[in-house]
Amino acid sequence: MTVNEQNDTVFTVNVIPYSASKTTIGRKLLRDKVNVETDILGRYVERFVTSEKTGGIDIDFLSKYGYIKG
């Protein structure tokens, strides 16, 4: 699964046909409960970019260090 869109209260995911056929996700209905596990690396990245020690990461930081063209 890949998160496609997200906001404060909702997110959408893309599920490839293989995953849908090999897991129970293909049988889920709208509003069915599911267990969501997040990637531990994602948690570390979130902490880093929001940390007061780093001052947070913003567009200016990403541009300055070559992560994006700005």
Assign an overall shape: elongated
**Rg over C-alpha atoms, rounded to the nearest angstrom:** 17 Å
Low-confidence stretches: none
Order of adjacent strands in the largest pleated sheet: 1-2
Give the biggest beta sheet: 2 strands, antiparallel
- Given helix and strand content, the structural type is alpha+beta
Sequence of secondary-structure elements: EEHHH
Q: What is the mean predicted local confidence, pLDDT?
A: 83
- Beta content: 5-15%
Percent helix:
25-40%
Tell me the distance between the termini: 30 Å
Number of helices: 3
**What would you call the quaternary organization?**
single chain
Number of strands: 2
Q: Key terms for this structure?
A:
70 residues, alpha+beta, two-stranded antiparallel ribbon
Structural features, described:
By secondary structure, the chain is an alpha+beta fold. It is 33% helix and 13% strand. It is built from three helices and two strands. Strands 1-2 form a two-stranded antiparallel sheet. The mean pLDDT is 83.
Topology record:
Blueprint: E1 2-6, E2 11-14, H1 17-22, H2 40-50, H3 59-64
Antiparallel strand pairs: 1-2
Please summarize what this structure is.
The protein is an alpha+beta fold.
